[in-house]
Amino acid sequence: AGLGQTVSVTMAVLAARMGGLALGAVLIAPRVGRIARPLAVYGFLELAIAFGAGLVAPGLAFLHRLDLRLVDPGGAGPWSLFALGGLMLLLMPITMMMGATFPLLVRIESEAGRSAGAALGRIAAVSTAGAVAGTLLAGFVMVEELGLSGTVHASRVTGTLVGIVAVLMSRF
């Protein structure tokens, strides 16, 4: 029992990631046109995501301890639905903030004179390329060199720096 590389854990993480991205985008999209400083909001979201990422490891440890108490003492049973739900609740706020960044970036790109289609295409391309590069870098280099916690820390530092730069740039 507990955390591991099981199909149910993988599916819960994927559902939280995709569901959070969609929900975050849907919730902010109707309001994005009324935001006075979208770059600042984007920056604050990046800062909140970096902070939230720091809560994942302690949250997972807590869920692991809870799950061990809820399942068969022999440890032969799969993850409990309670722990899977807890995992999704832990990840959803972070992924919702990630999803909220997309409409903000579209607005920022549109204000730079790009059509909505061009803005969407550019953001999707840069986002996808960044995700691929980050996954490869983390999976094949950073985890090997820094360990898992060092890789998470480096990712949080990067997100924090992006957030700070965005907030500072929004003032000009």
Summarize this structure as a short list of keywords or feature phrases.
single chain; about 170 residues; about 0% strand; mainly alpha; about 80% helix
Structure description:
This protein has 172 residues and is mostly helical. Helix content is 81%, strand content 0%. Helix 2 runs antiparallel to helix 3, helix 2 crosses helix 4 and helix 3 crosses helix 4. The longest helix is centred in the C-terminal third of the chain and has 54 residues. The radius of gyration is 18 Å and the shape is globular.
Secondary structure layout:
Layout: H1 7-28, H2 38-70, H3 81-111, H4 116-169
Helix pairs in contact: 1-3, 2-3, 2-4, 3-4
Short description:
With 172 residues, the chain is mostly helical.
What's the SSE pattern?
A: HHHH
Distance between the termini: 52 Å
- Counting DSSP H or I runs of 4 or more residues, the number of helices is 4
Strand share of the residues? under 5%
Number of strands: 0
Shape: globular
Task: Indicate the mean pLDDT.
Answer: 87
Radius of gyration: 18 Å
Poorly predicted segments: 72-77
Outline the biggest β-sheet: none
The helix content, as a percent range, equals over 70%
Structural class: mainly alpha
